[in-house]
């Protein structure tokens, strides 16, 4: 396996599997996946674009489709996509209704998407941006750059995509996405750290240990603890997300299980 080809091969496989998707001219240097039925010149709805570093599949290219993303901008593994790639994606799918950029709260993503948005506006495109920072592992004051963007971005993508599909204006789609981003909170639990293709897996987490709030790129979490029964882990996570420190509240909850964790369960 050639490490540099990992992202390219993922995109090729995705597009070959789903005929409703395509990639832009310039691939693989420009790693942009778009809906095959979305053409900027004629697209009559708000375009919803997200993206970021690869290595978190199915995010974000796997979320391109009707009622969700119009396009996904893919960087290399754990690397923000370039300004040129983001701008190419905007130009490809943005019509008269404008474009909403959904950006996870990481410095590189915010910088590159922000620069691309400024350039697109200077070319006459209508652009709005929503930043998603849903990580509840660390109190706000302990996060220098603010909360990290995590799996809660999926909800923001879906709500924005549904609003765009319904024909709402750019301002209304952005407002719905912003409200969703303010209402979502996420905390993860990991039994091992992430592994980059072609590199040795870290042994920082030993057997029988788990890390609460480990970052999706291997950033330190809130604490390392002994492995606990799943009900204890879930209870701790919910208390953190719903605490006054994190400022999330609501009468209903939704749960995402992005991967199976072999946590021990209690015998009843």
From TrEMBL:
<dbReference type="InterPro" id="IPR004006">
    <property type="entry name" value="DhaK_dom"/>
</dbReference>
<keyword id="KW-0808">Transferase</keyword>
<dbReference type="GO" id="GO:0004371">
    <property type="term" value="F:glycerone kinase activity"/>
</dbReference>
<keyword id="KW-0418">Kinase</keyword>
<protein>
    <submittedName>
        <fullName>Dak kinase</fullName>
    </submittedName>
</protein>
<dbReference type="GO" id="GO:0005829">
    <property type="term" value="C:cytosol"/>
</dbReference>
<dbReference type="Pfam" id="PF02733">
    <property type="entry name" value="Dak1"/>
</dbReference>
<feature type="domain" description="DhaK">
    <location>
        <begin position="2"/>
        <end position="268"/>
    </location>
</feature>
<dbReference type="GO" id="GO:0019563">
    <property type="term" value="P:glycerol catabolic process"/>
</dbReference>
<dbReference type="InterPro" id="IPR050861">
    <property type="entry name" value="Dihydroxyacetone_Kinase"/>
</dbReference>
């Amino acid at each position: 396996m050639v490490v540099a080809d990992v992202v390219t091969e993922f995109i090729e496989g995705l597009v070959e599997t789903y005929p409703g998707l395509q990639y832009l001219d310039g691939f693989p240097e420009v790693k942009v996946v778009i809906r095959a039925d979305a053409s900027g010149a004629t697209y009559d709805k708000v375009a919803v674009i997200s993206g970021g570093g690869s290595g978190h599949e199915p995010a974000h290219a796997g979320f391109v489709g009707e009622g969700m993303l119009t396009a996904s901008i893919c960087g290399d593994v754990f690397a923000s996509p370039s300004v040129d790639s983001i701008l190419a994606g905007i130009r490809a799918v943005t019509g008269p209704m404008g474009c909403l950029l959904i950006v996870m709260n990481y410095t590189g993503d915010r910088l590159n998407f922000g620069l691309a948005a400024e350039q697109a506006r200077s070319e006459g495109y209508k652009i709005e941006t929503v930043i998603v920072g849903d990580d509840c592992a660390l109190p706000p004051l302990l996060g220098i750059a603010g909360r990290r963007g995590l799996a809660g971005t999926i909800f923001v993508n879906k709500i924005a995509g549904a609003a765009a599909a319904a024909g709402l204006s750019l301002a209304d789609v952005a407002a719905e996405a912003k409200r969703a981003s303010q209402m979502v909170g996420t905390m993860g639990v990991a039994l091992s750290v992430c592994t980059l293709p072609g590199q040795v897996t870290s042994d920082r987490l030993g057997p029988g240990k788990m890390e609460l709030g480990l970052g999706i790129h291997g950033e330190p979490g809130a604490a390392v603890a002994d492995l606990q029964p799943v009900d204890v882990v879930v209870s701790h996570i919910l208390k953190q997300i719903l605490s006054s420190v994190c400022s999330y509240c609501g009468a209903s909850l939704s749960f995402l299980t992005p991967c199976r964790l072999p946590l021990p369960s209690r015998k009843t």
